[in-house]
Amino acid sequence: MGRRIALICAAVLAGAAVAQQVMIAVGGGGWLPGRQPWPYLLAAVPLWLLAGRPRPTRVRRPPAWLARTPPWVLLLGVLGLAAAVWAALQDHEPYLGHEEAVYANKARFWLDGTPDAGWGTYRPPGLPALGLLALHVHDGVGALRVLALLLALSTLTVTYLVAARWTTPRRAVVVVLLLLSGLGFLRRMPEFLTDVAATGLLLVVVYLLTRVQEHAADARAVRTALLALPCVVLAAFHLRYGVTGNLLAVTLAALAAYGPRAWLAHGRTVLAALGILLAGLLPHLLYATHLTGRPLGLVLSATDQANRAYVGDGLVYYLLIFPYRLAGDLGAVVMTAGLVAAASTLGALRRRRDLSARDRRPVFLATTALLTFVVLGLATDGEPRFVYLPVVLLTVLGVQTLAERSGRHRPAVLGALGALALVTVPATAQAVAHAAMPAPTQQAHSTLPVARALASDGRPCLLVTGYEPETGWYSGCDAVTYRQYRALAVPPPGTTVSLITYERGRLQPDAAGLTALTEGHRTETRVIPTDGTLGAATVITLRSAPTTSDATK
């Protein structure tokens, strides 16, 4: 009787999960917090297990036309869906955000010399270099966002290619759909950021390591994979210095899953790969030593930028949101299945040391995922965009596990996963558009009018604000924070300096602080009304240059 009740409850919850995704996808669900679906599927799974995992006697198969459709055609459909979602979301967040503007400013600086407001030496040059190419095509936000789309489509394609090698092409299509349906990935896909593209490169790194071990008898395959590895690592590193933590997790997981001897067996090729890697890193290490006095100074400086309340608060954050807030209701179930399968393989590995490299792969992938959460959680503040790699790896493991354990119902299970993921993509897009994007867009309705009102007329200008990157991008002026301004020497002669504060702004001084900064200057004050969340802006323009002693007070 108890099992029957559990089965009925599981069926009701599963039906509710599907219904709410459809409701959100068609524009309903505004009453849900953040338009996020309730985790009905996560609740249904343990009830289904309690009911004894009953399986239907009748085997259901997907439509014949779907079975005849080549996987690459299905992939093109998913990529088209991703492009359509990207285009739809641009209208909801048309302005560059804080992080986007930092990289955009550097790209424009290389293009025409416009000040690179917000840039710091702890940021890698890869994305601005790509942005420079985009700005050569069209000098505007649209070109940078199109580049972001191309990078996202590349990562989704790499995910398919790698997942197809680890599973099957049709399962790989389901993996890509699940990744696209997750809130963490879809939130940042439309933006000009490093995280999505870096994930694709990191996934290639993981794949090459598995290839080395699973083709250990093929000397040519091993040599090709190991010598390609440093090239991919260098590309990922110069795109995002933060991948250092991911690479540390991958390295530790590879040693733990396969054992040091498995790598020492390819000693000469490993040493050659390390030599290539060191040679590629040498310019960076010399530059970092010149700037900071330490070869790893820039990497450590990037870590220091984390907004941590304490060491480990990122790990606490990941524990609190795992896996639901990373991948959504459906993705969370699949990721959990992947973890369970890896735990089962780990148990087998403890009992038998003679497992093949292919059998050890789930342990390697899951260990990489878990260590990534730990390493990044200890080194930085927690953000979903930092941990896309673990989401991908656990999703691959989950899809493979569910397919293998479904027996003759495998086509129906994969079809159901794909269909629900297909509905979840527009539902997640609705959540992003109406819950996540309005806040930065409303903030831009305050910063954008101010930036345009103070736009450069060809003469040097410096804006001091808590929103320096985006203000710099839309004004064409240099921009710094108040803390940076206090540390500045006297601005070059002829530079117009304006101090900007908002009614509800951040990182800005009070009245006494402004008085201290304007002491010894003739000033002109004006108020710029805005309809954004920051309220009206007060702009104090300094009309006379201070002495050196005044500027350094």
Automatic annotation (TrEMBL):
<dbReference type="GO" id="GO:0009103">
    <property type="term" value="P:lipopolysaccharide biosynthetic process"/>
</dbReference>
<keyword id="KW-0732">Signal</keyword>
<protein>
    <submittedName>
        <fullName>Glycosyltransferase</fullName>
    </submittedName>
</protein>
<keyword id="KW-0328">Glycosyltransferase</keyword>
<dbReference type="InterPro" id="IPR050297">
    <property type="entry name" value="LipidA_mod_glycosyltrf_83"/>
</dbReference>
<feature type="signal peptide">
    <location>
        <begin position="1"/>
        <end position="19"/>
    </location>
</feature>
<keyword id="KW-0808">Transferase</keyword>
<feature type="transmembrane region" description="Helical">
    <location>
        <begin position="330"/>
        <end position="349"/>
    </location>
</feature>
<feature type="transmembrane region" description="Helical">
    <location>
        <begin position="412"/>
        <end position="433"/>
    </location>
</feature>
<dbReference type="GO" id="GO:0005886">
    <property type="term" value="C:plasma membrane"/>
</dbReference>
<keyword id="KW-1133">Transmembrane helix</keyword>
<keyword id="KW-0472">Membrane</keyword>
<feature type="transmembrane region" description="Helical">
    <location>
        <begin position="247"/>
        <end position="264"/>
    </location>
</feature>
<feature type="transmembrane region" description="Helical">
    <location>
        <begin position="35"/>
        <end position="51"/>
    </location>
</feature>
<keyword id="KW-1003">Cell membrane</keyword>
<feature type="transmembrane region" description="Helical">
    <location>
        <begin position="386"/>
        <end position="403"/>
    </location>
</feature>
<feature type="transmembrane region" description="Helical">
    <location>
        <begin position="271"/>
        <end position="290"/>
    </location>
</feature>
<feature type="transmembrane region" description="Helical">
    <location>
        <begin position="142"/>
        <end position="163"/>
    </location>
</feature>
<dbReference type="GO" id="GO:0016763">
    <property type="term" value="F:pentosyltransferase activity"/>
</dbReference>
<feature type="transmembrane region" description="Helical">
    <location>
        <begin position="72"/>
        <end position="89"/>
    </location>
</feature>
<feature type="transmembrane region" description="Helical">
    <location>
        <begin position="361"/>
        <end position="380"/>
    </location>
</feature>
<feature type="transmembrane region" description="Helical">
    <location>
        <begin position="192"/>
        <end position="209"/>
    </location>
</feature>
<feature type="transmembrane region" description="Helical">
    <location>
        <begin position="221"/>
        <end position="241"/>
    </location>
</feature>
<feature type="transmembrane region" description="Helical">
    <location>
        <begin position="170"/>
        <end position="186"/>
    </location>
</feature>
<keyword id="KW-0812">Transmembrane</keyword>
